[in-house]
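Need fresh eyes. Consider my entry:
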Amino acid sequence: MTRKQVGLTLIAMVVLTALVFFLPGLFTRNADLRSSLAAALNLPKGRAADFFINLPPAASRYPGTILVTEKLFILNPADANDTDLHTGSSFQLTTDDQIAGSALGSLGVPWLSEAASSKQEIGLDLQVTDGKILEMDVAALKRKLLASQEAQSAANKGTDPVVITRAYQGRLTYLLKRKGADQGSLWSKAAKSNINSEHFRIDASRAQQGEVRVEILDPVIFAFEASSAHFILTHLGVEPSDVVLSPIRPQPKNTSSVIPATSTQPAAWTLVTIASGHYPNLAMLRQDWNADSAKLFGNTLARYSPAARLDMISTEDRPLTEQRIRDFLATVATTVQRNNSRFLIAYYVGHTMTWPSGDIALILGSASQIPANLPTRSPELIEHAVDSKIGDLARLANAIDANLETLPPGFLPLRELYAQLAQTHTPFALIVDGCVRMDEFERMRSELGIVSDKGQNIFVYVGPEGAAGDTLSRLGTLQEHVADTQPYLHSSNVVLLAAKPGTYANSRQDPDNTWSEVGPLAARITFLYRASRYDADRPSLADLVGRVTDFNGVGEISPTGSISWSDSIEFKQLAGKVSYPGS
C-alpha cells in the first residue's frame, strides 16, 4: 500500500468515526421536555434543569402560588386573574419526552395509559402551541409572601416556603404513531377511539395510516420555575421585613406519594376506599374521576400510617356488583382481625339515590335502570319533627318499614354496607361522597321559604320578612330528625354524608390534577390536611374527620354542606390517638 493510499485510508477512518459518533445526534430530536423548552426560549442548556414539569397538570401553579416541602403542598394559591400577573414571550415546541407522555394516563382512557408506557409498539410526540410565559415581579412576590401567615408559620417551624416565580402555559397535542406494520391489540383499541369530552379530544381518523391525535382543549401550565423564600428581620420586632428568594431546582421524583402502611402507631387502624364509576347499562352515569377521588382520599389519610390499606376501584371491565362488595368486605374483615386494628375508616364515592322510606342506596355497576315514579311516603314524620317530638311508637313503626324495604338489583342500601362493615366487629367511620336527594325534604324546605336553583347550589330565603331566624331554626330541626327512620345513622359508628338532605354532592377540582375532579369530601379533607401541616394545633385523625362535618346536631344550620347524625364519641377517642404525621 502506498503512502498516499495509507493517508486516504486514515482519512476515511476518521470520517467514518465522526459519522458513527456525531451523525445520530444531528438527526435525533432532543427527547427531554425541559431541554426542548430551554431551546424554544433560546436559553442556555443549563437552564433546562430549572424547570419543574407539571404533567399531569396540578392546580394552582401560577406565579405567586406559595407552596411548601418537596411535595409542593399548596399554602396560598394564585390564579390567572391575579392583577400582578403579566405575560411574556410566546413560543412553541415539539418533543418526544416519554415522561411528559405518561400524563396521558390521567385522562381516564384505559388504552391511553397503556399507550403512554408502550414504547415498543407506539411512538409519542408532544406538541406545545400558543406557548406563553407567565411572570410576576419580584416585588409582588415578596408582598404575597410577607402577607401570608401560612408561609411565615412554615418558616417559623424551620421550613422555608416555595413560591412559583414563572410559569409556562400552552395548548398540548399528543401525536401517537404506530411503530412498524403490525397493528397490535393496543393500536386496534386506539383506532376505535374517537372521543370528544369537556377537557380533551381524540382524533382517530388517521389510525389506518398509523397516527392518532389527542388534543387537550384548554391551555394548561405544563412547566414552572420556583424559588425558596427566606424571611429576614432588620429590626427587633417579630414581623419579617424582607424576603430573600433563591431559585431552586426539582429533586428526583419520589416513585410513590403514599407513605407505606405500617403498624407502629399506638392505635393501629385500617383504611378502606371504594369507588363506583362504571355502569354498563346506564352509560350516562359513568364517572371516571371517582377513581381519582378515592385515590386522593386514600393517599391523604395514608399519611396517618394505617396498619393496612385496601382499595376496590371499579373499571370498565369490572364494574361494582353486590357480590364484589361482599367479597371485598370479607377481605377487609380478615385484614382488620389479622392486624388487630382498633378501628377502620371506609370511604365510598359514587352515585346514590334516596327512596321515599329514607333508604339511601348506592348505585352499583349491576344496576339496569333508574326506578321512576316511586311511591310517595306520607310526610308525617318530617311534619311531626318540625312541630313536636316523634313518639317512640311512630319512630319504631317507621324504622321497621324503612329497614324491611327491598331495593332493585344494583341498588345497595347504605344500611347494608354499614351492616357488612359491622361484621368486622371493629368501630368504624363510613364516609360517603354522594348525593342525598329527598323529594319530601325538598318540599318541606320550600314550604319553609328556602328555595334553590335547579342545581341545588344556591339557596335563597323568600319567606316572610323578619322570619329568617325562625326559619333557620326550623330547618335545623328538619335536618336533625329526617334520619330518625334509619337507626344505623345514629349509632356509635360514624356515618358522614357529603351532602345534606335534598342536595347534590357537587364535585371539586382535583388539587393535584386540573384535568380531573374529585368528590367534595375528598377535596376538603385533603386541603384541610395540607393547610394544617404547619399549624400549631395540628389535627389528629379524629380532628381531620370532625372538621369536615358541617352538621351533627350542633353544627352549621344551612341547606348545604356535609352532615352526620352519629354518636362519634368512641371514634374520636380511638382516632384521636393517631397523631398528625411527624408530630
